[in-house]
Each structure stands twice: as C-alpha cells, then as structure tokens.
Write a structure and sequence with these properties.
Elements (H helix, E strand, L loop, with lengths): L3 H16 L8 H15 L6 E2 L4 E2 L4 E2 H14 L7 H13 L3 H8 L6 H13 L4 H23 L1
Antiparallel strand pairs: 1-2, 2-3
Helix pairs in contact: 1-2, 1-4, 2-6, 2-7, 5-6, 6-7
Length: 154
C-alpha cells in the first residue's frame, strides 16, 4: 500500500511530465485537469486494478483493448507498463493519436478553465457509464489537485 507521500510524489511527477510532454498548448491547468481525473480513477496508484480486474493503472485503462494497448505500447518502447513513466508516456501518445480530438476539445475551452477541461476529459477520455453523475465531480477534484500542486511547488 502506497503512503500519502508516495502518492503525492506520483501526482507531482504526472503533472510535471504532462507539462513537459510537448503536447501543443500544454500548461498547468490542462495538466491538472487530467491529473484530477487520474486522482479520481486511481488516486495516483499506478498499479491499481479496478472494475473486477478489467481496468489497470493511473487512468484505469479498461477492457481488453485499451489495457492491452497500454501493455503493447510499453513493451514496444522498452517501458514498464507498471510504472508512472510508461503510463504517462502512453497517455501522451493517446492524446496525440487516438484521443487527439479529446485533447483538442480541452484546449479549445475558454481561459483553460480547469473544471470544464476536467469534465471534458472525463466525458470523452475516461468515459464512465454514468457521465452525468461522475464527471461533474472531476471539476472540484482537478481544482484541488491544482491547489495541492501549487502548495507543494511553492
């Protein structure tokens, strides 16, 4: 079981790595909108298994397709699928390819509003069954991650 300090370190790593990912227009708000969703999905536990064994990792990549794609991508690129590094590099790859439209719709949100971007990421990337209930909660989670990150970095 991970300690709070370990999970916090993963949170900082995730945000810093996203910010330095080279994705166009990437900034702290976008990184925190994504990280807020990661907190909700896995609490930054990169070895988390969910949905009765059908989801894995920081983003809880689900079902045979996306979870398998994570494993294949990491294997092909000499990364560990069970590491934050491998998973964030895979996430950036997804946001540059299959999920580019999700990223583009996030960066089109006025003023890079963290809450609105977190909801958009939830709806179109995480895509939970009950979007109307689940996704609005991601806005406050992303804002909390933003505040926590700023406290740690100050």
């Amino acid at each position: 079981r991970s300690t709070q300090n370990e999970l916090q370190a993963v949170m900082v790593y995730v945000i810093d790595t996203l910010r330095n990912s080279g994705l166009p227009n990437m900034n702290l708000n976008i990184a925190c909108a994504i990280a807020g969703n990661i907190k909700a999905e896995s609490d930054f536990n990169y070895t988390a298994v969910g949905d009765k064994g059908t989801s894995y990792g920081l983003c809880q990549w689900h079902d045979h397709n996306r979870m398998t794609e994570l494993f294949k991508f990491c294997s092909k690129n000499n990364l560990s699928y069970s590491s934050p590094e491998g998973q964030i590099i895979f996430l950036v790859n997804e946001l540059s390819t299959n999920y580019k439209s999700v990223y583009n719709s996030m960066i089109a949100i006025p003023n890079y509003n963290i809450g609105d971007m977190a909801i958009k990421f939830c709806e179109d990337f995480e895509s939970p069954k009950d979007k109307q209930t689940v996704c609005p909660k991601r806005a406050s989670m992303a804002r909390n991650v933003f505040e926590q990150y700023k406290r740690i970095k100050s």
